[in-house]
Amino acid sequence: MTSEPVRTELHAGWTLRAAGGPAPEPIAAAVVPAAVPGCVHTDLLAAGLIPDPFLDDHEALLAWIGRVDWTYATTFDWRPDGHERHDLVFDGLDTVARVTLNGRVVLESANQHRSFRVDVRDVLVDGANTLEVAFRAPVPYANEQSLALGARPRPYPLPYEAIRKSACNFGWDWGIATFTSGIWRPARLESWSVARIAEVRLTATPQAGGGRLDAEVVIERADASGPALVLSVEIDGRRAEAEVPEGADRARVGVDVPGAELWWPVGHGAQPRYDARFAVRADAGEADAATRRVGFRTVRWDTEPDAEGTPFTLVVNDRPIFVKGVNWIPDDALPVRVDRARYERRLRQAVAANLNLVRVWGGGIYESEDFYDLCDELGLLTWQDFLFACAAYPEEEPLRGEIEAEAREQVVRLSSHPSLVLLTGNNENLWGYEDWGWKVALDGRTWGAYYYHDLLPRLVAELAPAVPYAPGSPFSPGGEHPNDERHGSMHLWEQWNRRDWTTYGEHRPRFVAEFGWQGPPAWSTLVRAVSDNPLTPESPGMIVHQKAMEGNAKLTNGLLPHFRVPGDMETWHWAMQLNQANAVRFALEHFRSWAPHTMGAVVWQLNDCWPVTSWAAIDGDERLKPLWHAIRAAFAPRVVTVQPRGDGLAAVLCNDTDEPWTGDLALRRVRFDGAVLAEHAVPFEIAARGRLTVPIDAELARAGDVAAELLSATAGDERGLWFFAEPRDSALEPAELELETTAVPDGTEVRVTARTLVRDLALLVDTVDPAASTEDGLVTLLPGESATFHVRHAAPIDAAALAGARVVRTANELVAR
What we know:
The protein is an alpha+beta fold.
């Protein structure tokens, strides 16, 4: 008998075929090579049998894929190696599958969100082994389950609540419906003896002079009455052991780690992590080992009622953290294409935008280990929804048991990550039950309350007691209406749906977990995905790539209070992008100015899963939209913003750094031509992580000519501006600019000098080179001021093109006539 486990990947030699349903010829008769991990779409794309579903109206052309049964097959060689157990392991099957090994059914699954392990020692044969995974079509299966369980309220036609599969896989108001099937995460054969480590439930706690690691380790035995074992842990040169009695399936082990340093969110300190190695040993030697990378930190959410309601304040290492957050959706509608490098690109873009938290939304997926490991490394806090979104979910079997198994696995998997600061029961379901007519529509049927108020908090308390839990988002801790701005977290969607974005200023929430505004993707992304000729806001391809209900009407209605609707397509595109950025920046600066009453804002949304008009700051081709620049500016470590206070105005200075901020606040009322009409200097001193509100004298806060004046508040390098009139009602003249370009090793520096007031200057560099990018944007310049844009590009770019009207965009051309 050997003791060292053997793990053999089962990723080679797979084929795919349609096994039933409306597959068109020649696909119905084809057997194509298949990638594992992968999915049907990527295999058919690789074989050249389908067009790209992200282009034009191909989504509709490929809807049949979700109504077809698909079978994967491979053959692998195996030889007896002396091990007692041989487990077939699938880290993810999407979704309803029957697994057959050598003609025998060994597994039936119906949950995309969990892994599966089955003992196949009695099924393997010496030599060639045949493995098949037969997937049932997800669309008819979900419909069947909906009939069996009873229809439940939801915002979209197909019953995604009746199947444990990513909800947005059936389409969303920003997402394509793909209806994927496939072996979407790794598969392998694990051969082992005596015992294996099945779970590691750990807590890494700071203590005086260092930290302490405590863990409960669950052990699976090859023989339930197996021998006594020794469990050990090693971390940072320290070691501890615990006895595992004969037949026992778990043990606790703990170790002090002197000198362990605190793990902090980005912007608050460093992110030291420590490798902890757990091993289980029998007389014959080490049977199995597992490694976890841990960080020592404390986390809680302050929800102690105060005079104004109930706060929702994140506290890490006893420091209140103003949450600068963003919502995350799957980064590709075919998630198998998202690898570690892509996660890293996206998450580094988040950090560069001054974000410190990513909320993984409940209609998507539990992301891979790479995602959470990168968040740990970068200091990006993670808020993970359990996967329930915008629907009433049945509490009956078979869903009930599947949800418990899924939650148990994911709580244990995720809880070791220092970045994880919140597990949330669902997205908007508590709100939906109260306000969306569900009570009548349900007519007494279950809707998920058992999951959110009983099962999930019980599992978190059992498996990860140090991880905070909230029943939903939005949620009021004191039992008030779930979307009451005085209590807990709230979602703000009336602005996008019905009201002007300036009405964000009417709200003083304790915490905003969702709000946002739409805008189109980058120009080069748009024209790659939509080939309409002519391309217009309402042309057929544009409508396919606009999933929001009355989305284009809302874009227009939201623009008109601020700008007129342009007549040409490229200017329309810029106007909608700019309005999106202005809406969110306005809201973020308002929310931030009310700290510590308001202690966080989580923008909807960071990323896109395909090329689409949406709320994202980074589009489906990974390009930054102007919204990204707005978030970066509003969430900068130090900010000056001018805000209404009572009947007047005030300058609010936010210092989210570890150093005091002192100096003079220069207040000036200025004409658009640069002439100073009134000015005043106010000395200030702000503590580290502090804020200061400075009332502005009426002489400065009241304009003589609202159409042609602005107020400037400057502290060091930071400046806030207040315009007394909307752009469309202002005397903003055409922008007069001078541009100088200088070649630099990774691209070009563009120095722009304003001869007139220039509002919201941006360089849309992808219009001349789709691979070019800049992290500089949305700069407002007074006459005589300059700004430098660093444009990155690998291929040569004609410097004159960077000065062209398609690249250099401002708010001025949306006003000047």
